[in-house]
Amino acid sequence: MKEDYTGLQYPDRAAPLILDRDLHCDSLRPVGCSAWGRRSFVDLAYPGDAASFDDILELAGHYRMAAKLLGEHAPRGKQLSHAPRRLLALHSIELHLNAYLLTRGYDSKSLRGLQHDVSERARMAIDAGLLLRKRTEQHLLNLSSSREYLVTRYGPEMTATLSQVNRVMATLDELSLKIGKILHGRGAPTASAGRPR
C-alpha cells in the first residue's frame, strides 16, 4: 500500500485521481502521470444520485431539526446571528422540494442542474400538484430573486435585504408537513423535528 498527500492509502498499482482543470471535469488522470488525457479512468457517481426520496426527505428533516435547534440558541436582535439557521432552513427547503419532485418523475441530474434555485423547484412542484398557501408559494418564488441563498452564505453586509427568519421557518414547516403527508400519508413533520407552529 502507498499513501498519498492526504494520508489516504491505495494499492501500489492504483494511483489517486485528480481532475484535469484544463479540459473537462470528466477528464481524469492519475497523480504523477506526465501525460494529460481525455479518457476517464473511473466514472465518479455524483453524491445523491442513488438516494431515494425517503433518504432525501429524512436528510431534509435533519436539516430542519438543526435549524430549529440553532434558533433556540441564537441571540435576539442580531440578524447576522441567524445566518447559520437560515442556511440550514434553506437547504432543508431545497431537499424537501427535491424529494417531492423525485416522486413526480424528475431525476436527480435535472434537479442538480437547477443548482440552488428554490423558486424554480417550487414552480415545478406546484405545477406537479403541490398545494401551498399563497403566502408560502409567493415566498418560495421570491427566494431566488432576492438571492437569499447567496446572501446568507457570502453577504453579511446584505442581511437586511433578507426575508424574516420566522418567514423562512414558516415556509419550511409548511413544506415539511405537506410533503411528509403526501409522500408518507402522515401529518407529522419529517425527522421528528417538532410540530409546526
Task: Describe the protein in words.
The chain has helices at 53-73, 83-103, 108-112, 118-127, 134-145, 148-154, 165-184; strands at residues 2-3, 9-10, 17-19, 28-30. The chain has 197 residues and is mainly α. α1 (53-73) packs antiparallel against α2, α2 runs parallel beside α4 (118-127) and α4 (118-127) runs antiparallel to α5. It is globular and about 40 Å long. The model is unreliable at 8-42 and 186-197 (pLDDT under 50).
Question: Keyphrases for this structure?
Answer:
mainly alpha; disordered C terminus; two-stranded antiparallel ribbon; two-stranded antiparallel sheet; 5% strand; 197 residues; globular
For the termini, the CA-CA separation is 56 Å
Strand content: 5-15%
Q: Order of strands side by side in the largest beta sheet?
A: 1-2
Oligomer: single chain
Instruction: Give the rounded overall mean pLDDT.
Output: 77
How many H/I helical runs?
A: 7
Report low-confidence residues grouped into runs of 5 or more: 8-42, 186-197
SSE order and pairing:
Elements: E1 2-3, E2 9-10, E3 17-19, E4 28-30, H1 53-73, H2 83-103, H3 108-112, H4 118-127, H5 134-145, H6 148-154, H7 165-184
Antiparallel strand pairs: 1-2, 3-4
Tell me briefly what this model is.
Helix content is 49%, strand content 5%. It is mainly alpha-helical and 197 residues long. Strand 3 and strand 4 form a beta hairpin.
